Design the sequence.
């Protein structure tokens, strides 16, 4: 949960709006906020973090969920990289 300077919870609509503005400015397609968790997990693993560490960081009760999510994220990342390389 994120909070405003006042300490009150930040409304979801504020987060969605901020993320969409950032993505648009960066020229990146829209992704759900939850997708950022998955995008965060892959670089952690690539930098040497253990699957157990990533599981705990993401708050998954079962390491299989973490494994499945990161595998899907890695595949999606590779597909996006291939698309970018094809368009160069």
Sequence:
């Amino acid at each position: 949960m994120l909070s405003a300077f006042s300490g009150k919870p930040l409304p979801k609509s504020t987060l969605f709006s901020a993320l969409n503005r950032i993505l648009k400015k960066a020229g990146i397609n829209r992704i759900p906020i939850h997708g950022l968790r998955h995008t965060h997990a892959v670089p952690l693993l690539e930098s040497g973090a253990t699957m157990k560490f990533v599981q705990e960081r993401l708050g998954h009760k079962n390491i299989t969920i973490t494994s499945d999510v990161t595998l899907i994220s890695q595949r999606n990342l590779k597909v996006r990289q291939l698309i970018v390389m094809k368009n160069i």
Notes: The mean pLDDT is 81. The helical segments are 12-26, 33-46, 51-58, 63-86. Residues 34-88 form one domain.
